[in-house]
Design a protein that fits this description.
The protein is α/β, with parallel strands linked by helices. It has two domains: 2-120 and 282-301, Rossmann fold (3-Layer(aba) Sandwich), CATH 3.40.50.720; 121-278 and 309-331, Dihydrodipicolinate Reductase, domain 2. Helices cover 40% and strands 21% of the residues. The strands form two sheets. The protein has a seven-stranded mixed sheet with strand order 12-11-7-10-9-8-13. It comes from Streptantibioticus parmotrematis. Keywords: Oxidoreductase.
Length: 335
């Protein structure tokens, strides 16, 4: 199998190595908007430097992996669809609803495959939580808490292009909340604050956010995120039911210190970032994509899943700006 990868940045380099090491990938072609960066990545992995995005699409590859800057995702998804190529794309499809819907319509019209990179669906902890909830081991689920905390802010130049904290970061929590519980978010009430660098507010964004989410069966969930957590990279989910409760993301490297006399101390080596924390999940989703291309399995995360998570993020943005509860259906009316 020959696969083209477009985007040679941090996540692109990680995916490129996973594809290079896959036994079913005979050749990996790499391209980037910066030719020097793709050349360096290809040389470091023994892959083929395609030289340009056009060259990737003209090389007769069997599939495309899109890890470019967010602004290019929708165009590349459409291009893959028109070429009849299965595509894997890192989230988001686009930072707005019109761009997302337009890309999905191209995929639908072409009848092609689009797998979205919500890697938490492939994490062992989240998968075990999903199985426990679906098996009824917690009894009636009544409360879910989702937490995402970055150890430090992204570069200032990234923030205006990111779509904001809800669309860029918390969208992972919105997706995994839906996936684990099997429920849809019906209503949100969200807020945010800025106590750190000025560039967040200058971009209309926040550096810390919280959302109260009511699911369609009445289950209550909270989702919080911050760009400032000096203790390390912290991603967790707590699920409480009438019979039991469990937690995802609590292990020897969770950057959390107990104040109890017999509680856990601060970890010696806390998680430093998302690529480290979710490395097995990232590799698993790419292996699954290769199986999808081979026809050995179904698509585990179709493009429509990205749209549903984005609708929740959009509702949160409206709620934050207008200081009111927002029904997700209100946002969906505009799709």
């Amino acid at each position: 199998m020959r696969i083209g990868l477009v985007g040679a940045g941090r996540i692109g380099a990680f995916h490129a190595k996973a594809l290079r090491d896959h036994e079913d990938v005979a050749e990996l072609l790499v391209a980037d908007a910066d030719p020097a960066r793709s050349a360096d990545l290809a040389a470091s992995l023994g892959a083929v430097d395609a030289g340009s995005v056009d060259a990737v699409f003209g090389a007769g590859v069997d599939a495309v992996v899109i890890t470019s800057a967010t602004a290019a995702h929708a165009e590349l998804i459409g291009r893959a669809a028109r070429a009849g190529l299965p595509a894997f794309c890192e989230k988001p499809i686009a930072t707005d609803l019109p761009g997302t819907v337009a890309a999905l319509r191209e995929v639908e019209a072409a009848g092609s495959v689009l797998q979205i990179g919500f890697q938490r669906r492939f994490d062992a902890g989240y998968r075990a939580a999903r199985e426990a909830v679906r098996a009824g081991k917690l009894g009636r689920l009544h409360t879910v808490r989702a937490i995402t905390s970055d150890p430090e802010p992204p570069p200032a130049a990234y923030v205006p292009l990111s779509g904001g904290l809800y669309r860029d970061c918390l969208i992972h929590d919105f997706d995994i909340l839906r996936w684990v519980t099997g429920r849809e978010v019906a209503e949100v009430y969200a807020t945010g604050s800025n106590g750190g660098a000025d560039f967040f507010a200058a971009s209309g964004d926040v550096d810390t956010a919280a959302a109260l989410l009511t699911l369609d069966d009445g289950t209550l969930a909270t989702a919080t995120a911050t760009r400032y957590n000096g203790a390390g990279y912290d991603v967790r989910m707590e699920l409480a039911g009438e019979d039991d409760q469990l937690a995802v993301g609590v292990d020897a490297r969770t950057p959390l210190t107990s104040t109890e006399p017999d509680g856990a101390p601060a970890p010696a080596h806390p998680w430093g970032g998302f690529l480290e924390r979710f490395a097995p999940a990232y590799r698993a989703e790419l292996r699954t994509f290769v199986d999808v291309v081979k026809g050995a399995t179904g698509n585990p995360c179709e493009g429509g899943e990205a749209l549903k998570a984005l609708l929740v993020a959009e509702a949160c943005e409206v709620s934050r700006r207008e200081h009111r509860p927002v029904q997700v259906a209100e946002i969906a009316e505009h799709v």
